[in-house]
Write a sequence for this structure.
């Protein structure tokens, strides 16, 4: 175990940087009630993971550098559920420290540490397999590496809840869309948001042995787009009726605004619609918890920005789009329909850039595309019935 012992010292040395980063770097700042909640949750995680690490370490012999130092393979206690509970405790401890100090850089550092823990665990497992043989192979088959194997409906539900919970805090902390302009800072924040949440999802999914699918595929894209576009018809109609874009402030080139909303749509509908629906698919109607969870995140996103979410957005994005994905298994079409049919702000910016006539023409084109989508869906459905 000499090789893994040297690497273990390196990993713990790198881990010691996380408290320093978390305590000193607080960008973007997270304050008010959410900051206090994050600090409290972080403190609870620190206490629990710290106690967990102390307890597990007490099970080790005084000298524990090699498999021969252990009289028997540890299988009881927390080892009944995971193969490396000691490292699990330190993974949680890193995130707990970052939450306690409400430090997004600390969360990123904790996330970047996970591959090091993975590498360390893999090195030790090779040595343990060599020493314990068949006994350790059976041990590995029944336990997850850092988290319990949970390819079951309760485990899948916990994964979805954790994703929405994590996404809520990252959305609040970064406030990606509520900045004064679509500058380099905006794209940095949005990029960090994507990396944090998707990295978290991939990490937890891999630990639980659940296949990740964000719904970004070519198969079914047209069916997805047509259905989402047809359901989005009220949005351009209402925008044309209101027709007052003069109070809308534009601080960036039009293509950057469309690009920003495209990035937001990819993140939102992939992580908060496609991913949870796919994870909960084997659990029957349990996927119905996705819309209320999405409502919580979406509503809080607007509330934290000092705005009220439009009722039409809540019905369309939170209730109808998840149903569209459930039927089509494709999120790319939903993203396109959202950007070109349903979303208002990029088209307000379009009107300011090119004038009222161009805005009205674009609005009529959006309405026409939505109506055409509904017609095509009915035609396809009728044709299929006649065929079969």
């Amino acid at each position: 175990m000499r090789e893994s012992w040297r690497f273990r010292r390196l990993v713990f040395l790198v881990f010691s940087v996380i408290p320093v980063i978390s305590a000193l770097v607080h960008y973007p700042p997270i304050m008010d009630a959410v900051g206090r909640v994050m600090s409290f949750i972080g403190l609870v995680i620190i206490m629990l993971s710290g106690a967990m690490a102390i307890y597990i370490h007490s099970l080790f012999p005084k000298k524990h550098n090699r498999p021969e130092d252990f009289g028997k393979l540890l299988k009881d206690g927390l080892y009944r559920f995971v193969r490396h509970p000691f490292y699990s405790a330190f993974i949680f401890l890193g995130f707990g420290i970052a939450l306690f100090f409400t430090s997004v850089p600390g969360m990123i550092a904790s996330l970047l540490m996970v591959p090091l823990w993975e590498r360390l665990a893999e090195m030790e497992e090779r040595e343990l397999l060599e020493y314990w043989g068949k006994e350790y192979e059976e041990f590995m088959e029944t336990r997850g590496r850092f988290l319990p194997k949970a390819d079951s409906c309760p485990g899948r539900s916990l994964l979805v809840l954790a994703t929405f919970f994590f996404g809520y805090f990252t959305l609040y902390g970064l406030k990606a869309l509520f900045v004064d302009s679509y500058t380099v800072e905006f794209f940095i924040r949005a990029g960090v948001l994507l990396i944090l949440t998707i990295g978290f999802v991939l990490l937890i999914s891999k630990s639980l042995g659940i296949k990740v699918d964000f719904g970004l595929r070519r198969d079914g894209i047209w069916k997805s787009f047509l259905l989402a576009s047809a359901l989005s018809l009220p949005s351009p109609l209402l925008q044309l009726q209101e027709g007052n874009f003069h109070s809308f402030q534009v601080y960036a080139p039009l293509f950057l605004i469309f690009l920003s909303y495209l990035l937001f749509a990819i993140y939102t509908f992939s992580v908060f619609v496609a991913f949870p629906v796919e994870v909960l698919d084997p659990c029957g109607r349990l996927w119905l918890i996705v819309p209320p969870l999405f409502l919580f995140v979406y509503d809080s996103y607007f509330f934290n920005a000092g705005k009220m979410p439009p009722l039409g957005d809540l019905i369309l994005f939170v209730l109808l789009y998840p149903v569209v994905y459930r039927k089509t298994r494709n999120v790319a079409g939903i993203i396109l329909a959202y950007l070109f049919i349903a979303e208002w702000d990029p088209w307000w910016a379009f009107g300011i850039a090119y004038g009222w006539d161009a805005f009205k023409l674009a609005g009529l084109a959006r309405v026409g595309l939505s109506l055409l989508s509904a017609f095509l869906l009915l035609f396809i459905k009728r044709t299929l019935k006649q065929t079969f």
Notes: The chain is about 70% helix and 0% strand.
